[in-house]
Write a structure and sequence with these properties.
Exodeoxyribonuclease VII small subunit, Exonuc_VII_S, EC 3.1.11.6, cytoplasm
Length: 72
């Protein structure tokens, strides 16, 4: 993880998932720095919230599009 990570809102969904994967691998490794565990957890939580929000928004948009097809 970088010293100054990019704001979560500026990441693409794939970048956010990639960073989450990287954080997870770091936290699961034997060399995980316990002093950074809180920062890793905080960042992972931010990333998860943003990904969940984007997935929910995409799901709602797709449902709306499909509903429009059914009504035609």
């Amino acid at each position: 993880m970088e010293n100054q990570p990019k704001p979560v809102k500026e990441l693409t969904y794939n970048q956010a998932i990639g960073e989450l994967d990287s954080i997870l691998r770091t936290m699961q490794s034997d060399s995980c720095d316990i002093d950074k565990l809180t920062a890793y957890t905080r960042r992972a939580t931010e990333l998860l919230r943003e990904c969940r929000s984007r997935l929910t928004a995409t799901d709602e948009e797709l449902r709306s599009i499909l509903e429009g097809l059914e009504n035609n």
